[in-house]
Specification:
The chain has one domain. 39% of the residues lie in helices and 14% in strands. With 129 residues, it is α+β, with helices and mostly antiparallel strands. Strands 2-1-3-4 form a four-stranded mixed β-sheet, sandwiched between helices. GO terms for molecular function: protein-disulfide reductase activity. It holds the Pfam family DCC1-like.
Length: 129
C-alpha cells in the first residue's frame, strides 16, 4: 500500500511535522510531497482534492484523508507511544477537526513561514516525491 503525505512546504510547523514523522517511521511507510510542488499539485488534481483545502493530506492508494483523520491515520504507523493516539479516532470528527483547525489557523503565526520549501537531507531524499 502506498502512503503519501502532502504537506505545506512553506510552513515551519508542517516541515517540523514531516521531520517528526520521518524520525518515528523507521520502515519508510510514508513518502512526502510538498503541496506547492509539481507532484503535490498533480496528486491533488488526480484525487480531485479541492484547491482551497488547508490541511495535511494523507493519500492511501486511491483514498485521501484530511485534517485530524489524516493525522491520526499517520500516527497509527509511527513507532512508540504515538501509535496510541490513533485511539482518538473514536472521538467524533467535528470535535477532532475543531482542534485541528485551531492549530492550522495559528500555525504560521506561532511557527512562521519559509519563502521556499526546505530540501531534505541526502539520507531521506528518496522518501520525497
Amino acid at each position: 500500500m502506498e502512503r503519501i503525505i502532502l504537506f505545506d512546504g512553506e510552513c515551519n510547523f508542517c516541515n517540523r511535522s514531516v521531520q517528526f514523522i520521518i524520525k518515528r517511521d523507521r520502515n519508510g511507510t510514508f513518502k512526502f510531497a510538498s503541496q506547492q510542488g509539481k507532484i503535490g499539485k498533480s496528486l491533488r488534481d488526480y484525487h480531485q482534492i479541492p484547491a482551497d483545502t488547508d490541511s495535511m493530506i494523507l493519500i492511501e492508494d486511491d483514498a485521501y484523508y484530511l485534517k485530524s483523520t489524516a493525522a491520526l491515520k499517520i500516527s497509527k504507523h509511527l513507532r512508540g507511544i504515538w501509535k496510541l493516539s490513533y485511539g482518538l479516532i473514536g472521538i467524533p470528527k467535528p470535535i477532532r477537526d475543531r482542534v485541528y483547525n485551531f492549530i492550522a489557523k495559528n500555525r504560521l503565526k506561532w511557527f512562521g513561514k519559509n519563502d521556499h520549501c526546505q530540501l531534505p537531507s541526502p539520507e531521506i531524499r528518496n522518501r520525497f516525491l
